[in-house]
Amino acid sequence: MNENSIYDLIIVGGGPGGFTTGIYAMRAALKTVLIEKGIAGGQLNNTEEIENWPGTEKISGSQLAANIAKHADQYGLEVVTREVVMIEPGLDYHAVELDDGTILRAHAIILGTGGSPKRLEVPGENEYYGKGVSYCAVCDGFFYRNKTVVIVGGGDTALEEALYLAKIATKVYIAHRRDQFRAGMILQKRVSADKKIEVMWNTVVREVKADELGVNEVELQDTQTGESRQLATDGVFIFIGFEPNNHLVPAGTKMNADGYVHTDERCETNTVGIFAIGDLREKYARQILTAAADGCTAALAAAHYVENRKASV
Ligand code: NAP
Hints:
19 strands; alpha/beta; FAD/NAD(P)-binding domain
């Protein structure tokens, strides 16, 4: 990386979308750099097993992340491990400022900053984070061998993580606010067949309580009757969806009411030359596959955009 060098394309975020963009951009001979603040693969690393990546019946998230990063590396993709603090659109070039003050410039920017777990916003959640409250079963499940855990949520993530935790813990409760899961049927069938998992329908967690050793109880409320009760537990795993990481999206870029970035079919935002991919983008399905597909689309569109710009100067 050279502070004065101008790139064709800067990719912000090293999830499956960002690295797929990198592969396609290198194949299109774009001078490209990918900036990622953490480890390659992003959220993929928090997924135990992936069973819907076509051509691969089963693979761990961390292995798939490593494979994708290695694939991009074979094309010579430059990867910088730094945090991006600001993106400033410009007429000649867009600028990306890193946390060490370096400013990089490029014709096009692709934002693939993904999302973060939503918070439940109940008493005890923040206080006991890391002391029994978790948002990642693969990261923290190990601590719950032969223990009891409560999972909050009814989507694909909650059910997948419940199945994972049931292999470790003695008892897994799922507290879901409705009487029907949002998750797909395959996961629902697996959960109902797992004897260690007990679903508490129409139930919300109102408070997480702890003693000096960490979380020891949750206060539950029945959403139908309003009745409250206490349940002893060693941990609480919260999987109630994601929020887009949109803090770097430049002012004036259109987003929907939930903060997902609006793009056209080429993944380009209304800010010319700035593209959004993966979980950050407004779309129907948020999957590893669709993040990668967005990466492909955005890279091809960016290549076309950069070519036209260079031809016009
Ligand atoms: P999600 O699909 O948005 O589900 C969130 C769940 O949490 C819903 O059941 C929701 O209840 C519940 N919830 C939301 N806010 C709540 C609150 N304040 N209190 C209590 N419960 C609350 O989120 P996700 O499961 O993280 O999945 C995100 C996306 O990734 C989805 O598109 C999903 O399909 C995808 N995904 C796919 C796979 C896979 O294909 N294997 C795996 C993981 C994730 P309601 O149902 O009542 O709204």
